[in-house]
Specification:
Elements lengths: L3 H15 L13 H12 L6 H14 L4 H18 L9 H12 L4 H13 L3 H14 L4 H13 L3 H14 L4 H20 L6 H25 L4 H13 L3 H12 L6 H17 L4 H13 L5 H20 L4 H25 L6
Helix pairs in contact: 2-3, 2-4, 3-4, 4-5, 5-6, 6-7, 6-8, 8-9, 9-10, 10-11, 11-12, 12-13, 12-14, 13-14, 14-15, 14-16, 15-16, 15-17, 16-17
Length: 361
């Protein structure tokens, strides 16, 4: 802003502060507060920084072991990293579970930590204890937005969609322009839509069609609103495309997938998600196993550990297995398996080179 005098005054203040710490450089003292604040900044930036955020909070906690905020930041970063990688540690003594226990040990009334712990206990099928924690958190902080978001996720995963919707609508009253909340509401209506389609109780055809149209419109509205509020929210756009496919509007769905596949400067995980969903669309709605396999292969070949990549691999292996059951000499099935082994092998050798950089052999 060309306010150089003002900038210099802050540099001078920073220099004076840093002199208090023996290990500091002229303008940087890596004390717990700096590590902690850097951790939060990294968490709010992009998913690719989650691993570094974990390291920052870990350093902050090492130097300030009883600080609730840094311990909770550490737990939050571990949770985000698990979700991003698609490989959660669900053991009772996983690092995330132990860290959440530490937060609740330091602050038994930390409602967001309670709900995060409930989600992990839900993964471990400890549902009674998980529900107790969620209900306790809602009683203590009924208007705490982050707690509401995670509690709604808990109820949605537990199959209590109406309870989840009630919480999400309450959250939307607090922050009406939240793309996250619109997306979550859309997911709840999608569950209701799928349940309606699968139900056999179609005593009144007109009522069934009316309910179906209403749910489809609700899904589209909330997914579209989520993407409008946050144009980088690829998952919301993919969810919108999926509803279009369910609504038999295949041309619109196909146009969305085509547009997303041509996007540049998006994360590797988003690219994998796009290939995965485009493949599912080709398989289930266009009935093209060949095109579906091509998309799954493209998603799998992107070397980034994620749930989407694991699903691409799963569908590829399933396709190859089904084809070989019909014809033990099926060339496409062997090609699919061959590419999977080739990519696995390449990754193994790359990992060896990472470990043994100085080993010429």
């Amino acid at each position: 802003m060309e306010q150089l005098t003002e900038a210099q005054s802050y540099l001078d203040k920073l220099e004076r502060i840093c002199k208090q710490f023996p290990d500091a450089s002229r303008y940087t003292a890596m004390i717990p507060e700096v590590y902690g604040e850097k951790g939060w900044a990294l968490l709010s930036s992009a998913a690719k920084y989650y691993e570094e955020a974990v390291e920052c909070f870990q350093r902050a906690v090492e130097e300030d072991t009883d600080n609730v905020e840094w311990n909770f930041g550490f737990a939050t970063a571990l949770m985000r990293l698990e979700e991003y990688s698609g490989k959660p540690e669900n053991g009772e003594f996983s690092e995330l579970v132990m860290q959440l226990k530490r937060v609740l040990e330091l602050d038994p009334g930390h409602t967001v930590a309670m709900v995060l712990m409930a989600l992990k206990l839900q993964d471990l099928n400890q549902n009674e204890e998980a529900l107790r924690l969620v209900e306790q958190a809602l009683q203590k902080s009924p208007d705490q937005l982050y707690m509401i978001r995670y509690a709604a996720k808990f109820y949605r995963r537990a199959g209590e969609v109406e309870k989840a919707l009630e919480l999400l609508e309450k959250g939307l009253e607090i922050t009406p322009n939240s793309s996250f909340l619109h997306h979550q509401i859309g997911l709840c209506y999608k569950i209701k839509l799928i349940q309606l389609i699968k139900s056999d109780s179609r005593s009144s055809r007109n009522l069934y069609l009316q309910q179906k149209v209403t749910l489809i419109n609700q899904c589209k509205h909330h997914f579209d609103e989520a993407f409008r509020l946050k144009p980088s929210f690829i998952m919301a756009k993919l969810a919108f495309a999926e509803i279009c496919a369910i609504d038999k509007d295949h041309d619109k769905a196909e146009a969305i997938y085509k547009n997303l596949l041509n996007l540049e400067y998006i994360t590797l995980e988003n690219k994998q998600e796009i290939y995965l969903e485009a493949g599912k669309f080709e398989f289930h709605h266009k009935k093209s196993e060949l095109k579906a396999s091509k998309y799954y292969l493209e998603g799998f070949k992107i070397k980034h550990a994620s749930k989407a990549r694991e699903m691409c691999r799963y569908y590829l292996e399933k396709t190859a297995k089904n084809r070989l059951c019909k014809n033990r000499r099926d060339i496409q099935a062997f090609c699919i398996r061959g590419i999977i082994h080739m990519v696995d092998g390449q990754e193994c050798f790359e990992k060896v080179l990472e470990i043994e950089l100085s080993n010429e052999e």
